[in-house]
Write a structure and sequence with these properties.
329 residues, alpha/beta, Rossmann fold, 7-stranded parallel beta sheet, 5-stranded parallel beta sheet, globular
C-alpha cells in the first residue's frame, strides 16, 4: 500500500478520491507545517502533496527515502528544489492552467478596489462616518479607457488583457518574448519595452514568474518612472516587488495606490504597509474560488496516483525524470 502525506487539508472530500489502495495522512493543524515536522512525516511516504508555502528542499527530499512524487498544490513550484528532486528520480507535478481565470479575476478585483477606493468607502460606511454625498468624497482613478500595462504575458496575463478589452483600455505588455501577431491582434495588446510600459501605463499588473532576473523587478527606480496617478497590482510573486521601496512610494504618494495578493516575506508584511489607506491587501487568494480549488484537488490526486501506478502524470515539471525511468525499464 502506498503512503501519501498531505501538508494541509484540501477542499472537498479529497480523501475518498484515493481509494483503498492508498494510506493518506493529513497534517492535523490549521497552520503551515514546520521543517522539523515535515522531515518526520515524509520519512515513509511514496507521495507528498505540498503547498507553495512548504520549502521542499534537499533535506526534505533526502528524508523521504521512498518518495516517488511531490505534487505542489499550486501552479508555481519555486518552493521545491526541482534539481534535487530530479537528481533523486522524484517526479514533481503542479496545477497549471486551472488557476488562470480565478487569478485574473482577483487581479481585476484588486485593480478596481484600489482605483475606486472601495475598502476606504466600506470602512467609512461601516464606522458610521458617511455623512452623505459630497462632490469630492473618496475621489478615485478612472478605469474605463485608460492604459493598462501587463508585465508577463502568459496565460494569466492574457486573461487579464481579455478583461481589459471589456473596459475599453489601451493594453501594453512586456514579456520575455513577444507574442504571435495574431494573439496581439486578438487581445489588442501592444508590445513595448519595460521603461515605456512604466511611464505610459495608468495601471501596471504583474504576472511574471519569480526568477533571479525578476526579483525586485519593480524597485525604487521603476516606481519613480510611474505616473503619480498609477496603480500597481501584484498577484504574481511577492519578491518581484521591492516592498520597502513600494512602501516609501505609497507613503510619499509617488503613485496613487497598490493592490497586493503576494508579499516579499510572505506571510509577513513590511512594517507600515498595513497602515496605509492607499493599498489593498489580500492573503494570497488568487486561486481561491470553489471551482478552481476543487479542480486543483483533482489534478494533484490524479497525478500522484498516475506516478505511483507507473503512468506519466499530466503536469510533470521535470520530464527528464520520466525519460530516465523509461530508459531504465
Amino acid at each position: 500500500m502506498h503512503s501519501i502525506f498531505v501538508t494541509r487539508a484540501l477542499p472537498g472530500d479529497f480523501l475518498s478520491k484515493f481509494g483503498s489502495a492508498y494510506s493518506v495522512k493529513v497534517y492535523p493543524y490549521d497552520r503551515n507545517i514546520t521543517k522539523d515536522e515535515l522531515l518526520t512525516y515524509v520519512k515513509d511516504c511514496s507521495g507528498l502533496i505540498s503547498m507553495l508555502s512548504d520549502p521542499i528542499d534537499e533535506d526534505v527530499l533526502a528524508a523521504g527515502k521512498n518518495l516517488k512524487v511531490v505534487a505542489n498544490y499550486a501552479v508555481g513550484f519555486n518552493n521545491i528544489d526541482v534539481a534535487a528532486a530530479t537528481a533523486r528520480g522524484i517526479a514533481v507535478v503542479n496545477t497549471p492552467d486551472v488557476l488562470t481565470e480565478a487569478s485574473a479575476d482577483l487581479a481585476w478585483a484588486l485593480l478596481l478596489a484600489t482605483s475606486r477606493r472601495i475598502l476606504e468607502g466600506d470602512a467609512m460606511t461601516r464606522d458610521g462616518k458617511f455623512r452623505g454625498w459630497a462632490p469630492e468624497l473618496l475621489l478615485g482613478m478612472p478605469v474605463y479607457g485608460q492604459t493598462l500595462g501587463i508585465i508577463g504575458a502568459g496565460r494569466i496575463g492574457r486573461a487579464v488583457a481579455r478583461r481589459a478589452k471589456g473596459f475599453g483600455m489601451r493594453i501594453l505588455y512586456h514579456n520575455r518574448s513577444r507574442l504571435a501577431a495574431e494573439v496581439e491582434e486578438e487581445l489588442g495588446m501592444t508590445y513595448v519595452g519595460l521603461e515605456e510600459l512604466l511611464t505610459e501605463s495608468d495601471f501596471i499588473t504583474l504576472h511574471c514568474p519569480l526568477t533571479p532576473e525578476t526579483k525586485h523587478l519593480i524597485g525604487a527606480a521603476e516606481l519613480a518612472k510611474m505616473k503619480p496617478t498609477a496603480v500597481l497590482i501584484n498577484t504574481a510573486r511577492g519578491p518581484v516587488v521591492d516592498e520597502a521601496a513600494l512602501l516609501k512610494a505609497l507613503r510619499n504618494k509617488e503613485i496613487f495606490g497598490a493592490g497586493l495578493d503576494v508579499y516579499e516575506r510572505e506571510p509577513l508584511l513590511t512594517p507600515g504597509l498595513a497602515d496605509l489607506p492607499n493599498v489593498v491587501l489580500t492573503p494570497h487568494i488568487a486561486s481561491a474560488d470553489v471551482r478552481t480549488r476543487l479542480a486543483m484537488v483533482d489534478m494533484v490526486v490524479e497525478d500522484v496516483i498516475a506516478v505511483l501506478e507507473g503512468h506519466r502524470p499530466s503536469n510533470l515539471v521535470n520530464p527528464e525524470v520520466w525519460e530516465r525511468r523509461k530508459g531504465d525499464e
